[in-house]
Give the backbone structure.
Amino acid sequence: MVLGGLLSYGAQGSPLLYTDYLTALEAPVSDALQQYALDGADTERVMNILLKQSERVTPETSDVFLDNVNFLLSQASYSSYQPTLRQLNIQTLLLNGEAAKGVAEIAALPPQEQEAYRLLWVVGLMQLNQTSQAITTFNQMPPEAYQENPTSALNVAQDMVVNYGVSSQALHLPGDGDEALAQQLADFYERNGLYAKSLSEQTRRLSMLPTLPEQQAYRRSLVGFAREHDLVKDERALMEAYLKVAVTEPGRVIADEGAVNEYSHLLVHYYFDTRNHSERSQWSDGLLEAQRRFGKANPKTQQAYLENRLYRYDEGRPTFFYSDVVSLATLTQQRSAITSVFTPSLPNATQQKLLAGYFSIPAEPDETSFALAGDYAALVEECDTTLPMTVRALKGHQLTQDKQYAQAQKCFSSVVWAQTELPERMISPLQQEQRQVEYVTMREKGDEAAMVAIAESGSADMRLDTAMFAVNAQPMSSARLSYLAGLEASLALTPEQQGVVDAQIDERLRQSGQMALLVPRLKQTPERHALELAYWSISQDETEAAVDYLLMRLAQPTPLTQADDIRVVRYLDSVYPSLSQEVQQQVRQVSNEGVQTMVQLRTDEATLDRAFDVEASDTMVAVQQALATYNQLKAKLSSAPVANASAQLWLLGQLEGRFGQFLTLQAAQAPDALKPVLREQASQREAQAQRYVRQVVAQKVEGVMDVRVLDAVLLMGGW
């Protein structure tokens, strides 16, 4: 039953006798309230007691409470509270099961006063099983009434639907109320595991959204909801609706392309799965129209569309099926799409269509040559001079595709290309393939010189591969670096390729620990390697250089990783006092949050030395002043980025310790009654300081210079 929350409480109390008033507020429901009123107690206080009783009223005490309400209604001094008292009266009648009386009370009110009781009226009518009248009364709610208390209106509507079986579609609220009700019901059903009902209410919201794009976006979320809760049929229906609505406007697709691709794939695979013949009659090719339109501008979507079409028609394979095969093969440049469906048993026209598509794909062997030698080449395992030249060429090609490069080289080595029966357009690609096979063979043998000789006239990828092979082939030395520099020039690497090779050289030097060779290379482009140079300088105790490189890196827009941020900030914190004023000023100008916090913490640290220099002859005054300072500093130190955690904890420990020392000094000169309190507080501060110090030690990060951790370890050693 939805009764709570339908009242607006407005009474404010003023004392009768304050202690008695407080007791009465918490007392069980009783008629003692009537005596308070008769004794002339403040009316607002009495009303507050009544309202408190209304929160605790039960079926057992409702008669007493109702008597209290009616008593106050009869008192002239409570005339200003008549609306509230009437509401309490009606609500209690409904709670007490006297719905007929409650409804009669509301009906007896003047029409202009009935609006305030509309929701109670609806509740009463529902209790009396007068559902039709309750629905009519509910639906007549004015907009201003709904806007004043939408929560109560929605809760009553939910009660009507959930507990009395009223159709949610029969209820109507002003403004966006219908949409809010649908959402509230959907949330309620979802919380209670009634996912189908929840989805039904969510689906009802679709018609309430003003535009098709909004409806489509919302429909996508419903697909996800149905999928999450295994509402398979609903999910499928929603996906179909999404695809149909997507193409309702000419020349436009009202949908997300990714969703269209996903839904199209799922639906076509559902309907045309070989195990699902029974439901194919429900399929419509129009479900792929949205994907077709998107495919005009996006090759990937066009590929997905063609794949769906092929799956849809795979069983019957009408004539246009093979047209789609050719389109897909041409789009993807994959001849396998054609060979997977090609068979000599196909009609001549279809074979010609497939072969035409096959030959149009670049770098593919001529089909005529395959017709003469393809089957033969497929039967032999390796080449010899007894095989036709064309077969050897094609077998070499086959073995290359299978990555059997040694056998492929054996085939290609005896081929005289002018003597083959291959079309001229096929010879050049196969010659390139032959060079690739020779290159791979030399690579497998580790013949660097032969690789270089082949690569100098080879492709860009081959030249890059040769350079990378050379980088990894031998240990690094000054002489080897000079050789590699010359090799980059002889191979005519592009700037991008040189960058890849140089990066690999640096990585090899890095992995082998050859810093004497690596560091000069890094210094050639210091901004690119500023952080690595800084870490190197740190390892060499070159503070000035390290800070210069760190400032160089911090000036760059790319943010540091969290690990680097911690390392950089804590190092700067550790060396900051030793820096010159000029460098300190540069550090202060860095925009990095951790560095800025570090500088601020350094400033805060300087204030700790004199934080508790309190000049006051009275102990309590001195302690109060110090406590204010303590609270102010602690609040200031309460939060900091992860990189500043050790410094923050150290300063918090220092703050606690110094405050504890101050309290100890004050205890020595405090009155006897105050001494134990101050000593106890001092002890607690010192214990907290030690806890902070231990937390500082726990902040230790391997390989990170952190003076705060070092100070904490030294301090703990003295305990």
User: Anything to note?
Assistant: Confidence is low (pLDDT under 50) at residues 1-15. Residues 645-669 form the longest helix (25 residues).
